[in-house]
Amino acid sequence: MKNDRREAFIQYLASQNDWCLATNLANYFKVSTRTIRKYVNEINQDQIVIASSPKGYQLVSKDKVKTNDIHASPMDRTKVILKELILQSEGLNIFDLGDRLFLSVSSIENDIVHANKIIKPYQLKIRHKKDVLILTGEEKDKRRLMSFIISQETSNEFLSLKAVQDSFPDYDVSLLKSEIVFILKEHNLYVNDYIMNNILLHLIITVDRIKNNNSVIQTADLHKFKSNLETKAANKIADFLEAKYDISFNESERYNFILLLSSKTTLLNYQSLTPSSLNHYVDEHYVSLSKKLLEKVHERYFIDISDDEFFVKFTLHIRNLIFRSKNEQMAKNPLTHKLKDSYPLIYELAVFISNQIQLIENIHIKEDEISYIAFHIGSYFERKKNLEKKILCAVICPSYYDMQVQLIQKLEKNFHDSLEIIKVSSELSELDSLEEIDLIISTLPLQNERIPSVFVHPYLTNEDYAYIQNQLNKLNKQKEIREVKQYLDLYFDEELFMKNVYLDSDEAYIAFMSKLLYEKGYVSQDYGKSVLERERMSSTAFNNNVAVPHSMHMNAAKTGICIIILDRPVNWGKEKVQVIVMISINRQQRELFSPFFEGVINILSEWKNVHELIKAKDYDDFMDKMMWLMNLPRL
User: Fold this and answer.
1) Who is most buried in 137, 365, 396, 531, counting CB within 10 A?
2) Quick one: a GO biological-process term for this protein (predicted)?
3) What is the pTM assigned to this prediction?
């Protein structure tokens, strides 16, 4: 774009002092709207001078442009681009996408290169047809990708005890937790920390709402509930809260809490509340509505939420939300601002669900209520992410007296960090599906070769605990190998792989590899200095012919691995090495990269593996050897 044309374009926007439609600008300058987009992208190449919106273009100073935090890092932008491509099956115009994200076309093209690496394990690819970007691949793989993108927004902090306390500073959350845990134990009930935090948040919100004269008033029949452990515990907790906060839990509030607690203790009492029994306690209308809403989420966002616990909680929440809306009872949500700003994709799902409820029920849903839906969705994805770290287990044990309950309690107590019991049955034939199961723990002999199993005594012995732990160790190792394999293509790059580059010293290698990473857009120009700083503190050479130079800071633009393999050893400080691996780490990607990097280091820490890798003829051969090594049963 010529300077005089650039100045004329900027001056015209300045004189308007308002939004200008692309068509009006095109008519004024006698060019096409595509050329107008090109002008804007070129002017915004170095910094954002012109803002874009559905209303057109407007001249602004950079600090006034309202960009969303979601576009701050390359990884975040990539997730937004992928989400849009999944939803727009006909494709996206790259100029329109640039306008929406306040990015130049060249920046988007760089993000597309990175995105294609991320989606390679999903058998998907972004193709560029003229000005249109299209995501190609099977629908089921697009669904897997969308679920991954949404789950990346959650973290261990999504529903931490600290997050609950920060949101409700007037309540002593730790004290409440201690009292509730004590009452649950009194009634022989156990819940993990994730469920405990859910219960805490529900109760604090309930108490806070009651204190502000916003009790739920619905027809509720407490006689529907048998006098089981969950009912007794829920009533005792309600009594405690009444006395402590000088409030009254009416029958509706107690009914809701008993339902909630019953839905969270399914493993200890398999006759508790489930999706199939929900319509005995909640009007069928709400059960059907919840199914319809989740089906629409599946149709629109390719996300299949089929978790039983989520469905029960979601249905109870939707029922109460509709009641509040029809009776103009607003539920103030102190988490609204955080959820909206920190978890935009999850919040978008909540907006979609809220809009569907409004259309179906002819009600108005306020922003605070939308945030509560976002909270449920975020909690689901957090739980899903936590489950991915655990071994999913089915327990088979006869329901003779309390034998089954005692067995589950002991397993939960001893393996709660590594094992998640998701199915309980009296015999194998009663299990409706084994697809999600990683391990079967059974007190009965089994003839099932497809799924690993452990035969134990009904009352667990020390040998039983050891057998279970040994099987968990094996399954966790296999899971780690699969995860590392998935990210090979994401972090290794043929352009960053070299063979037989011989230099004079470790400093020369660090300078050479840092320069290459800089030229490929991974790091800043002075990255080599921070790598040298780390190297001088302590050599990064292993005693098995491997050096892993890296910076102490996670300030790289992109995460990647630069690697050199050598037929003959070279000096690296006081060591000799034949494999040099320089890594660059981007702070936003560290959560994804850490398990992968640990897996690579595990491979490089064994001389027999290094000896195999240095025999690689080229990049493809090297990758084949890495894949092979990752499938070795090093258990």
Assistant:
1) 531
2) regulation of DNA-templated transcription
3) 0.52
